[in-house]
Design a protein that fits this description.
flat, mainly alpha
Length: about 100
C-alpha cells in the first residue's frame, strides 16, 4: 500500500476512535436495556438509541473499510487458539455461513 496522506491517516484515527466510543455506548445501552427489561422496567432508549448508535457506527467505519478494501476484524480469539483449534473454528464458521 502506498504511504497514506497525513490527512487521511488523521481521519482514519478519528473515525476509529469515534467508532470505538459508539461501540462501547451501544454495548452499555443494550446491556442496560436487557437488565431493565428483566426487572420489568420499560427502557425505550434501548431500541431507539441502539439504532441511532448503530447508524453512526456504520457511518464512521464504512469509509475506512472502503479505503482499506477490507473488513474490520477482531481476531483476538482465533489468535489465542492453537493452530488446530483455530482451523476447526474457522471451518465451522465457513460451514455456518453456507
Amino acid at each position: 500500500m502506498n504511504a497514506m496522506n497525513p490527512w487521511v491517516r488523521g481521519f482514519e484515527k478519528a473515525s476509529l476512535g469515534l467508532s470505538l466510543v459508539f461501540l462501547v455506548a451501544l454495548f452499555l445501552l443494550m446491556l442496560a436495556d436487557a437488565l431493565l427489561r428483566a426487572v420489568g422496567i420499560d427502557f425505550f432508549w434501548g431500541s431507539e438509541g441502539g439504532g441511532i448508535l448503530m447508524a453512526w457506527l456504520i457511518f464512521f467505519t464504512l469509509p475506512i473499510v472502503g479505503y482499506q478494501r477490507g473488513h474490520i476484524a477482531t481476531d483476538f480469539l482465533t489468535g489465542a487458539l492453537p493452530p488446530r483449534a483455530r482451523w476447526i473454528l474457522l471451518l465451522l464458521g465457513h460451514v455456518l455461513m453456507l
